[in-house]
Amino acid sequence: xxxxxxxxxxxxxxxxxxxxxxxxxxxxxxxxxxxxxxxxxxxxxxxxxxxxxxxxxxxxxxxxxxxxxxxxxxxxxxxxxxxxxxxxxxxxxxxxxxxxxxxxxxxxxxxxxxxxxxxxxxxxxxxxxxxxxxxxxxxxxxxxxxxxxxxxxxxxxxxxxxxxxxxxxxxxxxxxxxxxxxxxxxxxxxxxxxxxxxxxxxxxxxxxxxxxxxxxxxxxxxxxxxxxxxxxxxxxxxxxxxxxxxxxxxxxxxx
Length: 255
Fold this sequence. Notes:
The chain is of the alpha/beta class. Helices cover 37% and strands 26% of the residues. The strands form 2 sheets. Strands 6-7-8-3-9-10 form a 6-stranded mixed β-sheet, sandwiched between helices. A 4-stranded antiparallel β-sheet has the order 2-1-4-5. Strand 7, helix 7 and strand 8 (202-206) form a beta-alpha-beta unit. It is found in: Cell inner membrane. It is a peripheral membrane protein.
């Protein structure tokens, strides 16, 4: 099976001011490599500041790498192609309320996504919006709601709708399930697993919820200070992590 995404030696360094004229370099990501195949979930775990969100932002073009390569479906992605790949690689942020315009109805938000990335007519967009809302367990009438009118679980479904309405091949979940209570998280996870089974979508799951990782992810990568310490099948990482930091991280959670 060919790789949907291949990342080769990806690196990112920031310059941080330490005084009026002085700066120091902070390595956010250091020569990280991995692959992601269709229908697969890769979990990226690590402490705050380990480089998890930096990795996600590099994959969707919010940030540009200093070194390394990102390949999608056999072609290398360059800066000019991020708009094109935005349809196939979608990003869900940790807080859906902050990522949605509070002054726009959900229909307006979803129409804008479709206008930007497709050539669908208004009627075709209306049909696509209705199909996507139903797919995620929402009603047609929800299209006329504002974000503040939804519960937390519904709002996460709206965020999923905005990402999935373009039928992406890869969905990046950047701590997108962390704020949900356990029952709502279980509902969203079951929905994501069903979507994956039906469509073959791949997930890059950024989280510190190791119980979720063990249940949800096919492969796991452990980041620490921008470096990849462990990477492989989730069952193998949890049973026999190579690096001491990975062992401490896994052993800190009682199952």
